[in-house]
Amino acid sequence: MRRFADQIAVVTGGASGIGAATVRRLATEGATVAVLDIDKQGAADVAAEVDGLAVPVDVTDPESVRRAILSAEIDLGRIDVLVTNAGGDRPGFFIDTTPADWQAVLAVNLLGVMSCVHAALPGMRRRGSGTIVIMASEAGRVGTPAGAAYSAAKAGAIGFMKAIAREWARCGVRCNAVAPGPIDTPLLRNLEESGKLGATMRQAMINATALGRTGTADEVAASIAFLASADASYLTGHTLAVSGGLSMW
Ligand code: NAI
User: Is CB count within 10 Å lower at the N or C end of the chain?
Assistant: First the structure.
């Protein structure tokens, strides 16, 4: 399948995990991909693999995002596909977290998404076309213990996605979201190694899925590619759960 032949894609958080798998998937299907990440070396490594462009960015800084999106547009000509995937968590029971923790989690998972879309939309509007895929999470739909701010941010991202879908549909821009369940990536592995995700908690997450296992970054990337492609041309404002049946709506 070469659903993205001659297309330009931008993937934030493309240096690792689901983002890196998405970069590889879009590139395999013909896209030229800009890898935007705060991890400069990681972005350069993934970009080199796919003959793409690495652009350093901190999505929590709107000015950094504006510059990064502009640099991708100048170097590659335009942006057809935007995947706002950069994210992370500071897990802990709500009562043990601080306002600084909530702000950091909202900054990357919600405000970072908004900054990226804000920077990329003008070009899409000018051309009358574009597709946006927002990284949400099942946490934003069903809530997750030890992730109150994260759940709030991801739920906010879903609401934001729907508003953008309505505002921009008639300008040729589609906007959808994916809501993964537990996916085996460095994010999950780092939580395990730091002791913030114990074996019981991990098993509880797996038990919550109907398929009884974690997902892979490639499985999420496949759904992102579907939503970004013309195969999903009549889909906008949709949240696609990629969670082994954790939720079924
Ligand atoms: P990961 O930790 O492997 O990758 C996250 C990437 O985002 C890293 O390359 C990191 O450098 C980048 N990043 C973090 N903060 C950034 C910032 N301020 N500016 C630019 N880049 C930044 O994690 P993973 O698992 O691949 O997560 C990707 C997305 O998927 C996140 O939004 C996460 O919340 C979401 N997600 C992950 C799930 C999982 O179980 N792994 C489940 C549901 C959603």
Answer: C
- Residue 86, phi then psi, degrees to nearest 5: -55, 135
Ligand 1 atom with the smallest distance to the CA of 135 is: 32
What pTM does this model have? 0.98
Ligand 1 close to Cβ of residue 239 (< 6 A)? no
Contact status, residue 75 vs residue 49, Cβ threshold 8 Å: no
Q: Does 22 sit in the ligand 1 pocket, CB within 6 Å?
A: no
* Strands across the sheet containing 239-242: 53-56, 32-37, 8-12, 81-84, 130-135, 173-180, 239-242
187 alpha carbon – ligand 1 mean position (Å):
7
| Contact 62 CB / ligand 1 (< 6 Å) | no
What does DSSP assign to residue 53?
E
Helix (H, G, I), strand (E, B), or coil: what is residue 95?
A: helix
Q: Does the annotation mark 150 as catalytic? A: yes
Backbone torsion region of residue 17, taken as left when φ is above 0, otherwise alpha when ψ lies between -120 and 50, otherwise beta: left
Tell me: the pLDDT tens digits for 166-219? 999 999 999 999 999 999 999 989 888 888 888 888 899 999 999 999 999 999
